[in-house]
Write a structure and sequence with these properties.
43% of the residues lie in helices and 16% in strands. By secondary structure, the protein is of the alpha/beta class. The chain has a single domain (3-228), classed as Alanine racemase (TIM Barrel), CATH 3.20.20. Strands 7-6-5-4-3-2-1-8 form an 8-stranded parallel β-sheet. Strand 4 (101-105), helix 5 and strand 5 (125-130) form a beta-alpha-beta unit. Helix 4 crosses helix 5. The site of pyridoxal-5'-phosphate has 13 residues, from strand 8 and helix 9. Pyridoxal 5'-phosphate (PLP)-binding protein, which is involved in PLP homeostasis.
Length: 235
């Protein structure tokens, strides 16, 4: 087995163990492989090992990979592409045209543009609202107090499908702070589900904190480093 497929297998078994420890079915937790900065060859290796969900942070880099793999004879089953990075309004069009999901929506203007630019022949674009849980001014994401209103605005856009929320909690070694953030997100997720029963995605947990995220109800972990190794350039 290649290093990459070993690392992927390790991550999948960690997800399974974390699910089992939390008395959850492992199928409730999806693995998004975050391939930012990594070459197409590594995405193909992960695909060959069974991975189908990939996340990218940069518009140009992501589109190039999507286009390359859409013409690759080795790729026979569809790949689900998630855009998870900051998105500026002048870059929404290629994202609306090429990605299946955008997880980093934190304002209505971007959502409206994606809605208007989503091509007719494609299914609605799946959306997660990014929540700035730690209230850090430097972080992107909508505040807890604004998320309910943003959800109601986004859910009214016909070419978008509201699937849930995404968050990147403050990096900390303090398990109490981390668990508290994950629990707040889980409560918000359940609250939104009351109004929008189709919501099924609580995207939280990365290489360093996917186990406590799963313990606190995550339905999608976004894992880069633990699968692909350290990033090829600073990201
Ligand atoms: C880079 C990134 C990840 C993956 O982080 P790792 O620590 O490498 O697993 C997850 N989510 C987002 C939004 C990212 O930008």
């Amino acid at each position: 087995m290649s290093t990459l497929s070993k690392q992927l297998t390790t991550v999948l078994s960690q997800i399974e163990q974390a699910a089992s420890a939390a008395h959850r079915d492992k199928h409730e937790i999806k693995l998004l492989a975050v391939s930012k900065t990594k070459p197409v060859a590594q995405i193909k290796a992960a695909y060959a090992a069974g991975q189908r969900l990939f996340g990218e942070n940069y518009v140009q880099e992501g589109i190039e990979k999507i286009q390359a793999l859409s013409q690759d004879a080795d790729i026979v089953e569809p790949i689900e592409w998630h855009f998870i990075g900051p998105l500026q309004s002048n870059k929404t069009k290629p994202v609306a045209e090429h990605f299946n999901w955008v997880q980093s929506i934190d304002r209505l203007k971007i959502a409206q543009r994606l809605n208007d630019q989503r091509p007719e022949h494609l299914a609605p674009l799946n959306i997660c609202l990014q929540v700035n849980i730690s209230g850090e001014a430097s972080k992107s994401g909508t505040t807890l107090s604004q998320v309910i209103e943003l959800a109601s605005q986004v859910s009214a856009l016909p070419r978008l499908k509201l699937r849930g929320i995404m968050a990147i909690p403050q990096a900390t070694d303090d398990e109490n702070i981390l668990n508290d953030s994950f629990q707040q997100l889980h409560r918000l997720y359940l609250q939104l589900q009351q109004t929008y029963p189709d919501i099924d995605t609580l995207s939280m947990g990365m290489s360093g904190d996917m186990i406590p995220a799963i313990a606190n109800g995550s339905s999608m972990v976004r894992v880069g480093t633990a699968i692909f190794g350290a990033r090829d350039y600073s990201a």
